Amino acid sequence: MHKGLLTPREKRIMQMLAGGYDREAIVGALSISRSTYVRAVNSAMHKAGSVTPVEAVVTLLALGHIPLPILPGRCVFSGAEVAKLIRALYADAPVSLD
Q: For the chain, how many helices (H) and strands (E)?
């Protein structure tokens, strides 16, 4: 991560994304607007040097900026994305999500 630390809101939103919660669940649980959600995710992606939310989650998990989820919600990532996430967490080399 090269652009600064996550704010508490960004961290919480990214933790919930890592746990498999979708946008509506996060917006409802945190009592925030959709635009606040979008700004927080975009900011976290920028800070992580990522171009997608999935890539940001992988980066943040791999660097220890958010904890590995224990009790996931409804998974919003595809099987291929989840497989890349798992490989990235246990690999020493950088992983591209192309």
A: 5, 0
- Model confidence pLDDT, tens digit, residues 61-71: 888 888 877 55
Cα dihedral sign for 3, 44, 81, 65? positive
Beta-carbon neighbour count of residue 46 at 10 Å? Answer: 14
Q: Could you give the CA distance from residue 57 to residue 41 in angstroms, rounded to a whole number? A: 10
d(CA 21, CA 57): 12
DSSP state of 25: H
Is the separation of the CB atoms in 14 and 57 below 8 Å?
yes
Sign of CA dihedral 73, 78, 84, 86: positive
pLDDT tens-place string over residues 16-71:
998 888 899 999 999 999 999 999 999 999 999 889 898 898 888 888 888 877 55
Where does residue 56 rank: exposed (0-12), middle (13-18), buried (19+ CB within 10 A)?
Answer: buried
